[in-house]
Amino acid sequence: MASQTTVYAGAIAGQAWATDKAMISTGTTSVTAQVILAGKPNESTDTIYSNPIVIPANSVQYIYVGVGNQLTITGGSGTATEMGTAS
């Protein structure tokens, strides 16, 4: 499957992801990202990262999300772009 180009702006909650990775770009403030395992939408402790990832202001960071897992980003200054393949 070809690379995806879906882009989400601002804060997102429990967005089911269609690719392996996310490129998170921030604006003037930092954002926090966390990934909840697929099938566990009501259990915030079932995450793939032990602590939320803080992405500093005015930066770009790639994180692993995994197809079907749910990405949550808090903080409204940024975008999350689906990257990579749907393996």
Please give a handful of descriptors for the protein shown:
four-stranded antiparallel β-sheet; 87 residues
Describe the model:
- By secondary structure, this protein is mainly beta.
- 0% of the residues lie in helices and 45% in strands.
- It contains no helices and eight strands.
- The protein has strands spanning 7-9, 12-16, 21-26, 31-36, 53-55, 60-64, 70-74, 78-83.
- Strands 1-8-3-6 form a four-stranded antiparallel β-sheet, with no helix packed on it.
- The termini are close together.
- The mean pLDDT is 88.
Reading the helices and strands in chain order gives EEEEEEEE
- Overall SS class: mainly beta
Number of strands: 8
- Global outline: globular
How is this fold's topology laid out?
Blueprint: E1 7-9, E2 12-16, E3 21-26, E4 31-36, E5 53-55, E6 60-64, E7 70-74, E8 78-83
Antiparallel strand pairs: 1-8, 2-7, 3-6, 3-8, 4-5, 4-7
Give me a quick take on this structure.
It is built from no helices and 8 strands.
